[in-house]
Amino acid sequence: MDIVNAQGGHVGCLYDDAPRFTEIHGVPVYKTNDLQIAGPLIISIGSNKIRKMISERYPIEYAKAIHPLATVSPSSMVEEGTVVMQGAIIQSDAHIGRHCIINTGASIDHECIIEDFVHISPHATLCGNVHVGEGTWIGAGATVIPGVKIGRGCIIGAGSVVIRDIPDGATAYGNPCKIKNIDMKHADNQRFSEGKDLALTELRRANKTEAYAA
């Protein structure tokens, strides 16, 4: 709500099925079964999976919210449903997908591509030409060096320094960032086959033990 208000907009109502909420900061809260949901809407939920689920359940008009104290290059693209918070920086020719969260003080450098339903946490830094796959979460204060590709459905731990590509479904953290696990349900078989082998090799090297995939 703060971002919309700072933009000079107005939040007419909120939707939340939790029974304890009837209003928040003076704004009425409706249940999703009380009436037909109408847009423009912003899904204000941190979970990438839940934002995707809601957007698919309600195919309506979605707004985007960019805080006036964020810096967004006019040559960049920010898609519908995305929220860009105070102090965030989005540089030239970057492309931010649908229903993303670019959190407080995050920096997205030139020509980065952020696919849909991604969360870039506070003060994370993505250097130039980084590609982040759908549904990935980049932890607070993480740094991704130029040209790195991070797959779909990944989790990058807070404070990590990512210096090489990360395959789909990987959980990785550390400085330098090392792959700790691979969640196969996020994998696209064609995209993932080479990345899986690379990840398993990295796991063995990092842990000096037999690697595993969930």
Helix content: 10-25%
Q: State the low-pLDDT regions, or none.
A: 209-214
Main sheet makeup: 8 strands, mixed
Shape, principal axes of CA atoms: globular
What is the strand tally? 22
By DSSP (H or I, 4+ residues per run), the number of helices equals 3
User: How far is the N terminus from the C terminus?
Assistant: 38 Å
Radius of gyration using CA atoms only: 18 Å
Query: Beta fraction of the residues?
Result: 15-25%
- Secondary-structure-derived class: alpha/beta
Strand order of the largest sheet: 4-7-10-13-16-19-21-22
Helix-strand pattern, N to C?
HEEEHEEEEEEEEEEEEEEEEEEEH
Mean pLDDT: 85
What does this structure look like?
This protein has 214 residues and is an alpha/beta fold. Helices cover 16% and strands 24% of the residues. The protein has helices spanning 2-6, 48-57, 189-207, and strands spanning 14-15, 23-24, 27-30, 65-66, 71-72, 77-78, 83-84, 89-90, 95-96, 101-102, 107-108, 113-114, 119-120, 125-126, 131-132, 137-138, 143-144, 149-150, 155-156, 161-162, 170-173, 178-182. The strands form four sheets. The chain has an eight-stranded mixed β-sheet. It is globular and about 55 Å long. The N and C termini lie far apart (38 Å). The model is unreliable at 209-214 (pLDDT under 50).
